[in-house]
Amino acid sequence: MIYIVATLTVKPESRAELIAAATACIAETRKEAGNIAYDMHESITDPAKMVFVEQWENAEALEPHRKSDHMRAFGRVVVNCLTAPPKIEVITPADVTIR
Fold this sequence. Notes:
The chain is of the alpha+beta class. 31% of the residues lie in helices and 29% in strands. It has a single domain, classed as Alpha-Beta Plaits. A hairpin with a 6-residue loop joins strand 2 (35-42) and strand 3. The longest helix has 15 residues, at 15-29. The chain is globular, with a radius of gyration of 14 Å. It starts with a strand and ends in an 8-residue tail after the last strand.
């Protein structure tokens, strides 16, 4: 299993545009093979921060996702909505035993 955490810093005047584009992209991404979850979150402390949390069966599922029409369309909108480059982290569950 693999997770992607993407933090975007959005121009205030572009927030509604980004949310609309993200909503369409999320709906299509959730239909993709290998996708377990794909959600958008808003920061409570910083309204300019939008955080996407994705859960995938494996890293191989990401390649078709990156090349999909809906991701390309989302990318064309996002590029004009941000005040800084996105911060993207790829993470996996820690191998920890909780007693």
